[in-house]
Amino acid sequence: MRLTQRLRRAPLLTASVLAFALAACAARATDQPPAQAGATAAAPASDPGAAAPAAAQPAPDAAAPAPDAAQGAGGATAAAPSGAVEKGGAPAAPAVASAEWPQWRGPNRDGLAAGVAPPAAWPKELKPRWKVTVGIGHASPVVSRGVVYQHARQGEEEVLLALDAATGRELWRAGAVAAPYEVNSAARDHGKGPKSTPAVSGGRVFTLGIAGLLSAHDARTGRLLWRKDFSRQFPVTSPLYGTAMSPLVVGDAVVAHVGGHDKGALTAFDAATGAVRWTYDADGPAYSSPVVLTAGGERQLVTFTQKELVAVSAATGAPLWRLPAKTGYDTNCNTPVVYKDMVVVSLEGQGLVALRPAREGGRWAAREVWRNGENELYMNTPVLAGSTLYGLSARRKGQFFALDAATGKTLWQGPGRMGENASLVNLGGTLLALTNDAVLYVLPAGAPSFAPSAQYTVATSQTWAHPVFLGDQVLVKDETTLASLSLK
Q1: Which of 259, 234, 286, 236 lies closest to 3 in space, CA to CA?
Q2: What is the distance between the alpha carbons of residues 6 and 3, in angstroms, rounded to a whole number?
Q3: CA proximity to 416, closest of 392, 393, 399, 438
């Protein structure tokens, strides 16, 4: 999520680690049955402002396919072997099946493009293979079984598109849900979203709209399986600048922080039915996303809320530990990074902090391992390459840095004025950094300084969405289009 430069951050109160013993409270969401917004096959979109085709009525039975057995450490699973769908509805052999990017920041939610090697030699330019107008928004594309899923706004509707990864051909269009939204004046330049990245798991695609509408679609056909509207549960259903946290699939549950400013609930929903499994009632959601950390034998979800950094049991939602993370404008934007049994976060006015959760006297606490005050994150989420953490500091109007993840020592800092944000990917040890100004930097593995070996301009408008690297192509979403660029 991006905020206008008019927002200036205020110092954070001194952080202290607190034990947290409140019980998770049950909460109910208003179910919206799948009576509308099925899916239709359509030609590629040509006008992001045009209304989507009328949706087909879904079948009365909204049961979802059985989850796939393969599951990554981050909790996401690849879609069941559905592949692409021909216009007539018959499965087609996936054209690109080797690379998976099923959720925010990839298979394990860490920016690592596993199983994908960088080119032996980077080309002089990245030539387009295909380019499709999909609509506005900063939601990142996700990929499973050779199908690209893109959540975007077309006119006053949010739609979910399925595209063939090899050709860009539209396989189906779903959603087409009315999504009127008034942008906060402080974030008017950033559009009406959506900003949340979908998750693909067990043959289902989960989306979270700009106003907090949570939906599950069949990954093969686009049929609506279930939908949750939280307007009866919370006074408002999205934070001040629009929903931006991305759903996380853990086993057979999908986790989302629903609700709005000052009041929300981190909630696990049954992936097949949408039924509530557990809730952790908290303040409003942040603009970052939860990650899975295993420490002390406990699998826990770690995430920012509006005012805190919290950890809950991944199985039950029971609170484990928390610490204050208040910012001047309630804009916690960076996703925590897991390094071994630690979690690395940035706290406003305090730089980067590494925390190690552990039980102490029967209660959980997260103790500080190291602190780096030379670099501080705002919207950027860093990426690991071995024990080196690469990121874009908010200082000096955007400054790339590298630090030792074990000690917190700064290894190098690059020049300033590199941009407001950068999406980072570890591609076989090579660091790829796409700035919001559509500049892609290629940094060799183990580089002792910021000295890119290649640099490309990959779009003609802003690029806030995360890029996706698939074998010999990279997917880039700009303000209105999604393009596949060749790495050959």
Answers
A1: 286
A2: 8
A3: 399
Residue pair 366/323 in contact (Cβ under 8 Å)? The answer is: yes
Paired tokens of 63: 């049961």
Q: Which residues contact 257 (CB under 8 A, 6 or more apart)?
A: 245, 264, 265, 266, 267, 282, 285, 286, 290, 303, 305
The answer to whether residues 402 and 411 touch, using CB atoms and an 8 Å cutoff, is yes
Question: Chain-centre distance of CA 325, in angstroms?
Answer: 20
Closest CA to 183 of 117, 257, 238: 238
The residue with tokens 């006015």 is 349
With beta carbons less than 8 A apart as the criterion, state whether 103 and 199 touch. Answer: yes
The Cα 393–Cα 346 span in angstroms is: 10
pLDDT tens digits, the chain, 488 residues: what are they? Answer: 444 444 433 333 333 333 333 333 333 334 444 443 445 444 333 333 333 333 333 333 333 333 333 333 344 443 333 333 333 333 343 434 458 999 999 999 999 998 888 999 999 999 999 999 999 999 999 999 999 999 999 999 999 999 999 999 999 999 788 888 888 877 777 778 899 999 999 999 999 999 999 999 999 999 999 999 999 999 999 999 999 999 999 999 999 999 999 999 999 999 999 999 999 998 999 999 999 999 989 999 999 999 999 999 999 999 999 999 999 999 999 999 999 999 999 999 999 999 999 999 989 999 999 999 999 999 999 999 999 999 999 999 999 999 999 999 999 999 999 999 999 999 999 999 999 999 999 999 888 999 999 999 999 999 999 999 998 999 999 999 999 999 99
State the residue for tokens 């209105």: 480
